[in-house]
Design goal:
alpha/beta; 6 helices; 236 residues
């Protein structure tokens, strides 16, 4: 049995949406949904929140997450990468005698991620053993048919060779969905946190993915969440 931990990365310094990671979302602090999904997966030895905010730490603990240490200042600014934060957490646990084989980094503003999705991602990691498992979404419109607009306001195809190609005949392409990442700890440190290859995707339906960077994004996410619950969508 491999040792697994989920780290919910919740920095306190959100500027566009103040207190974004603990803002109420459909009746609960949004971070609560990530904590619940991690717990409901039943695959992690520990559900941990990495934060520099005492307020976030208190709310996380209220929902059953562990906060055994606070995030360092050097990894609490806009320049720290996800990998920097995860490696710091692993190092901190090693200092108290705990080793983990796999780390799932779960973002705190992911109300559409479920325990089942996390289970499937971890299964991919354990079966195929890449450096990282990442969630991806297929582009809803083929990027090969995209336009660019020049300074005079005229548009043209960026890839004119595909002008007469049917959309359904174009190669399917995907983009990083964010939401979470599952890391092989040994490979993460071996590559010093710089992973450019050796990753395997888990394809998510587009409805599971919602960037929440503005208040408009927030409203859209709440509407989607409410509709999915009312319709008893398969995600719930």
């Amino acid at each position: 049995m491999k040792n697994r931990i989920v780290v919910i990365t919740a920095r306190g310094g959100s500027k566009r949406i103040p207190k974004k990671n603990i803002k109420e979302f459909c009746g609960e602090p949004i971070i609560a949904y990530a904590i619940k999904a991690a717990k409901e997966s039943h695959i992690f030895d520990e559900v941990m929140v990495s934060t520099d905010s005492k307020e976030i730490a208190e709310i996380a603990q209220r929902y059953g997450a562990a906060v055994p240490f606070m995030r360092s200042k050097k990894n609490a600014d806009d320049y720290a990468t996800t990998e920097d934060v995860i490696m710091e957490v692993v190092d901190n646990y090693r200092r108290i005698g705990k080793e983990y084989d796999y780390v799932c980094c779960l973002y705190p503003t992911t109300p559409f991620i479920t325990g089942d999705i996390l289970n499937r991602a971890m299964q991919i990691m354990e079966d195929k053993k890449p450096s990282v498992v990442i969630p991806v979404v297929q582009f809803s419109y083929p990027p090969q048919r995209c336009f660019i607009i020049d300074e005079d306001g005229y548009a043209k195809f960026k890839y004119p060779q595909y002008v007469k190609t049917r959309s359904q005949d174009l190669e399917k392409e995907y983009h990083d969905a964010g939401q979470f990442y599952v890391y092989n700890v040994e490979k993460l440190f071996e590559k010093k946190g710089i992973i450019e290859d050796d990753f395997i995707p888990i394809v998510l339906p587009e409805i599971c993915v919602q960037d929440i960077d503005t208040l408009d994004d927030w409203k859209m996410a709440e509407l989607k969440y409410q509709v999915l619950k009312e319709q008893k969508h398969g995600l719930y």
